[in-house]
Amino acid sequence: QICLSLVKLLFYLAHSPLGSIVLLDFQPRQFVMVDGNLKVTDMDDASTEELSCKEDNDCTLDFPTKSFPLKCSVVGKCEGINEKKNLFNAYRYFFTYLLPHSAPPALRPFLSDILNATGDLRYGINETLKAFEKVLHLYKSGLYLQKRPLHLKDYISLKGFRTMEGEDYKCWPSYSHLGCLLSVHSVEEAAAICSSQSQCQSFIVTQQRTWTGRPLASFRSSPTDLIPDANAVVYIKRSASSGERL
């Protein structure tokens, strides 16, 4: 969410009515999340000036660990230097820390492609935004889910119950520090996740939604601490359903 919001912001800056805008003091502390969108807190160091040049050798974009040769345009400006500077800063301050983590395994190759392409500046901001929107579509639609054995048949569903809230086993990347709370596309995906975790004995799909509209599923190590809830369904592993309390 943070990276996509940042890319949308950089897309606007690259195509603003004032021209391509560069953020000269590009640091994480210069941004803040407002209602799920990344905002720039300080525009004092923003500029529409692009580096003047006489030849291509005047247009090297230098960073501490990398340098990129750019072209000198016919009007004597380094082509796309503001856009590329913003994009590489997004890569080194945000993408490298956020993209490799917490995505479903099937989507990680797509995010690795974005990471590598922006790290080498093979993508401009237009291509980067398009790549992010493709990943978002796959994520929201569930198209990233590969054909796999169905796991839901290994569970018993009990309508009108849910598991008790409280501290339980932890998992990554959980939305709760008290237990294992993950976003899922469907009950079937939740069953597959539970089946892949040795501690998991039951789960419920909650009414909570993430910013993409995906529901959150709570995974529990105990299949029997149930309380009535008319709007809930608890799914219990068949192998765990023979417990005495159940």
TrEMBL record:
Signal sequence segment: 1-19
InterPro entries (alphabetical): FAM69_kinase_dom, PKDCC
Domain FAM69 protein-kinase: 2-116
Pfam families: PIP49_C
Keyword list, A-Z: Kinase, Signal, Transferase
Entry's Gene Ontology cellular component terms: extracellular region
Keyword Signal among record annotations: yes
Coiled coil: none
MF GO annotations: non-membrane spanning protein tyrosine kinase activity
Top-level taxon in the UniProt lineage: Eukaryota
GO biological process, one term: skeletal system development
Protein name: PKDCC kinase
Organism expressing this protein natively: Ciconia maguari
